[in-house]
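Notebook B, p. 112. Complex prediction, attempt 2.
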Amino acid sequence: MIFFIRRALQDMNNNKFLHIVTIIIITLSILIVSAFSLFFINANDLMESWKKGIRIMAYIQKNTPEVRILDLKLKIAQTGNVKDVRFISKEEALELLKNQMGQQRSLLNDLNGNPLPDAIEVKLKASIENWEEVEAIAARIESYPLVEDVEYGQKLIGRFTNIFQLFRFIGIAMGVVFFMASVFIVANTIRLLFYSRHDEFEIMRLVGATDGFIKAPFYIEGIIQGAIGGIIGITVLFISFWIISSNIDQGFSSYFFSIRFLPFKLSFGIIICSMFAGWLGCFLSLKQFLKT
Amino acid sequence: MIEKNNSDYLIRMFHVSKSFVAKSALSDISLDIVKNEFVIITGPSGAGKTTFLKLLYLGETASQGQILIDGKNLSRITRKNIPFLRRTFGIIFQDYKLIHTKTVFENIALVLEAAGNKRSYVQKKVKSVLRIVGMEGRNNSYPPSLSGGEQQRVAIARAVVGNPKIILADEPTGSLDPQSAEIIVNLLKKFHKRGATVIIATHDRELIRTTKSRVINLKEGYVQSPKVITI
Ligand SMILES: Nc1ncnc2c1ncn2[C@@H]1O[C@H](COP(=O)(O)OP(=O)(O)OP(=O)(O)O)[C@@H](O)[C@H]1O
Ligand SMILES: [Mg+2]
């Protein structure tokens, strides 16, 4: 094994230029994919933090007696994943509205009575995982008698969820494309090297070398290329991240959310994928050789 | 037709023929070569000498007939096992086939490395073989910087370093002056004395005359009336 690694390193040293170009291309692929993952992870965190702040407003039918509203409030409070409920009477709601309107509040003075409904504000537990759960709870509350309507910013966040799904899809597609690009570039490098040394391998076979003996250094070269490209890519991303985040962090982060780098496991996984790409490139280009 | 293997036979050929696309190179060859024999295959250019050697190490496959090497039928050897067959041979090619981008030392070490030998053994063994062929000072030279006779000696060193049972030498004295040729022939005789079976393909009259050994005479792919002289 050490023997093959030594041979592989020697080969790489003899063909520095080709290997450097290959590694740069792998590095760029890894950089793009991991930058996207980084963006994705943080966007995901942001979504999560929004979800945690989500409240559901349950509007109550007009002319419902106060006692029954209290019953309903109790019932909602006992629904799963509900953290907190608060009754907002229509008078309170009108006050809030007036405060919010500021200068234009005089408009409301002309109102004939109070058109707003009574409402119950429902805060959800932070343990909620995804948007579907929020929707389920809202639907549940809506099904209770006396509840006329529920509101939870469904349209806005629903659209976000869709965009988010699109992002996820684009991210995966990009990952696949760049993985294939890395495989292709390694395959091409190895093919070039292999053709250029064809006579040498023919002689090796004549003196009793197995195909495995001839191919092993190439596999090691492919894996080393993948590893170096992956490590450089992640490192460059980390340094850029570190520089950028130390500048914008204060303004951007909040109580719920602060930007973070790729988790260690994911970084490691990306490097492993990159090494696998190197191996696969090698496998594909060597498969067709040595068959005469 | 195939008799029970006598353990003395190292190579047996039964009605072996080889034809290329539009040409027959060897026809109906049947012969046996025993252990530690010294055999010269001769004949004019194009007679099929190189082809004869190639058939033995599966550089080519016979079109017809059977070849047994050390009791193994070549037609039953799978692609995967060819490298192991080739390790029973030490081959000196007509065109040397040294790797020009590797040093003399690396060229020879390759055989032992490919067979999975330890580094320390490889170092020791290559040095000792280079000493035997008189090339110990040229460890780190590259083949193109050597003379023809020197390259031939490196080729011999590579052929014998793995202690092969059979040494095949294709025109080992072909382009050499009489003195270099003598050195080469003496080396081959030396390894023969150490127990190897040696097969030389040559049209060097001088070599045939001075070497009292069995001569197989090929002409247009056929074996001519064999004369056997034992040594
Ligand atoms: N790969 C091949 N394809 C087609 N014909 C071939 C091939 N190899 C050899 N031959 C033919 O087979 C015949 C025998 O060739 P071979 O090389 O065995 O001759 P030789 O006795 O070694 O000649 P020389 O003394 O010139 O080396 C020749 O006519 C040659 O043209
Ligand atoms: Mg020949």
